[in-house]
Structure formats: C-alpha cells, structure tokens
Fold:
Amino acid sequence: MDILIIGSGPAGISAALYAKRAGADVTVISRGSGALAKAERIENYYGLAEPVSGAELEANGIAGAKRLGVKFVEGEVVGLAMNDDFTGLVVQTAKEKLEAGAVILAAGSTRLAPKIPGLKEMEGKGVSYCAICDAFFYRGKVAAVLGEGEYALHEAEILLPHASKVMLFTNGKEPTIAIPDSIEVHKEKVSAVEAATENGTERVSGVMTEDGTFTPVNGLFVALGIAGSVDLARKIGAAVDNNRIVTDAEMATNVPGLYAAGDCNGGLLQVVKAAYEGAVAGLAAAKYVRKR
Amino acid sequence: MEIVKENIVAVTPDNFEMEVLQCDKPVLVTFYANWDQPCRMQQPALDSIADKHPEIKVCKLDVEEYTAFAQQFGIMMIPTTIAFKNGKKVKRATGLRLENVLLNMVQ
Ligand SMILES: Cc1cc2nc3c(=O)[nH]c(=O)nc-3n(C[C@H](O)[C@H](O)[C@H](O)COP(=O)(O)OP(=O)(O)OC[C@H]3O[C@@H](n4cnc5c(N)ncnc54)[C@H](O)[C@@H]3O)c2cc1C
Structure:
C-alpha cells in the first residue's frame, strides 16, 4: 500500500482526504475514538452554524473519508519499523504487519508516564522505552515490562528470547489480554523503581510494589496502556522533543517516509490545527510515494 | 562494517584512554549498534556536529562488539551519548537526541 495513516481523528482523516485526492492509495488504521470524541460540544471550528458534539464531528469525518474511497482497518498499533531493505515502513499491530511506502503518525497526544519514583531518574540505566532497541542488553538477565495490554505483551514477547526471565508489572490493573505462562505477572501497584550502584555505575536493581515486596529485575520497559505517538516514534528513531514529535514545515519527521500530524506534534491542541497539519502531511506523503 | 566518516573516531577499549580521556577537546561518545534504527537516525546529527564543530571530537563506540566495555559505563539503552571534558564524564543523554541537545552537552 502507498500510505498508511495511524489514527482516525481530525489529523488522520484530513491527511487521508488530501492524500487520497492527490491520487494515493490510502489506508487508515485506528483502534477507535481519540480525544475528539471526549469533547461535548465543538463551536470553534470553521463552518458550524450550531455546535456539534466531538463524537459527531469525528464520525462525520470518517464517513466522508470512506465516501472518497479511503480504506479503514481496525487495530491497535504496537510497533513501527523500517522494512528490511529500508524502502518502506512496517506498522505492527497485535495481529498483523502492514507495510507502506509512507506512514503518517496521527495517534493523538501522548500521556506522560506516571510519576513512579525512579522511573525518570533511571531512564537509560535500566528503564527503557523500546524492547526491540534494547533487548540486546538483557541476555541472560531478568527483564520486566510495565503495562497491562497488547502493547506491554508485544514488548514482553520481544524480550522473551533474550532474557532469562520476563515479568509483567501491571501497576494495579488487570491485564486486558491473556498473558502466556512464560511471563510472570505482578499485579500490585508499583511504588518505586529501585537502583543500586556497582563499580561506580548506577543501575536498576528491582521493582518495589505497594505490598512491600521487592522484586529484583535488571531492567524495566515502559509500555503502559496503548502505544502512543511518541512511543512509536521512539522505536523507529523519529526525533522527539519534550514529548512531542519533531517535524519540518511539511510535517516530515527525520525518518524518510514518516510524517506526523495533530496533537502528537504539540502546539495548539485543537481540531483546526490537527486538520491543517493532517492536510499538509497527506499532500507531502502523497508526493513522497509518487517520487519513490 | 560500518563506514565511519574520517572526522568521527571509532573508539575501542584499546584507544579509549588516548582518544577520549586524554583528549584536550570536549568529546562526545555515542554508544550505538549498527542494526538499531534509532542509532541509524542519530547518525546525521553526529555527522553534522563533526563537520561544523572541529573544536569538538565526535566518537562512536559499538556496543555489540564491546559489550563488556559499554557495561562499565552502565549503557542499557541505545543510542546513549556521553560528553567528556578533560577525561571526566560531564553529561549523559539517552535515546536519540537532536543536534542542538548534543551540542549543549559540551558547550
Ligand atoms: C474534553 C475535550 C474537549 C475538547 N474541546 C475542543 C474544542 O472545543 N475545540 C477544538 O478545536 N478542540 C477541542 N479538543 C481537542 C481536540 O479534540 C484535539 O486537538 C484533536 O482531536 C486532535 O486530533 P488528532 O487527530 O491529533 O488526535 P485524536 O483526535 O486524539 O485521534 C487520535 C487517533 O489515534 C488513534 N490511536 C491512538 N493510538 C493508537 C494506536 N496505538 N493504534 C491505533 N490507533 C491509535 C485513536 O484511536 C484516534 O483515532 C478537546 C479535547 C478534549 C479531550
């Protein structure tokens, strides 16, 4: 396929409209509603004689794109990578791998990681955000994943062939999917990520849970809830600054063929800006795949 | 083999003392692996710093080849960039970073 768009909010749908009308073959993958569906009434967007609910605006957007022939796939994206010969991008969902010439990241804004003591401080010293990048360091070691859904399971499965043991800390939540027996599940709330200093270098030593248990682990991969735009950007090496994706005026990231639009780019978190950025990204991505 | 530009030094446990610790210029050392996508995407920023800032020495260390050595620096995430001045670690940045962020580490 030519262009795969992650997210069916105003950014993703605007991108789809412009890319489709520019002649590209366009597919949108989404797990459902985003921020817009939470807005009760929108009355600051162009052309609304009467306020509409965010949910209605979102549904109308999707219907309009379908009318133009944009394809839709339902699914939760858990990974993003280059293909083997670096000619395209691969979007991984819980069920399948989809390859496209260009990808537009329009998955909305990313929640900040929870304030667990040690999480921020130990980043890069055992706390990691990308199993595919850093699994290598856990050969024969104990690796843990913080999370409870498809995304966490995906990260844990990447770690399994490397680590001697893989654990899942759900931080007080019930897992939303079945976890295989090969992964040890801990459901207590996490109170701290503990560190120890060895030969002058500080490293993660374990996870402390609210029941007072200390579980020794060598590292912790953060994969809470659903993979957000920034999580996906990190895996493919798209530059991120202050929890927002860095793009140029054409909404291109530093990764060839990867564009980003909407709330994930920061700035004004409004429909009008998401729609504008989506339009620009859609046109730029269509031009990119034409030139390939 | 990775092609390292001539103004970027491939450091090893053998030349680390001379190239990094004894260097009288500020040094940026990026710990990387060839197969890692974020590491590949970090490369243009390193090339650009090496081209534009002769007053900074830019080095790369392959964590796959020198795993035990990288562990001495507590490297558990790639890319990780450590800034050295007068043989001392001054700053550390984990994950892919923008060129200006890397530059700020030594300025
Ligand atoms: C309560 C509230 C009120 C608001 N009121 C207004 C207002 O009055 N006016 C205004 O202009 N703006 C308002 N906003 C902001 C507006 O909703 C957002 O700026 C806009 O929706 C951003 O669009 P987006 O396409 O970037 O992201 P979103 O609308 O958040 O869409 C993200 C899409 O990505 C999908 N997605 C995310 N992760 C994944 C994954 N891993 N796999 C697959 N799909 C994924 C989601 O399912 C969704 O389809 C409001 C927001 C809220 C929360």
In short: The longest helix of chain B spans residues 37-52. Chain B has one domain: 8-104. The two ends of chain B are 32 Å apart (CA to CA). Chain B touches chain A through 26 residues (CB under 8 Å).
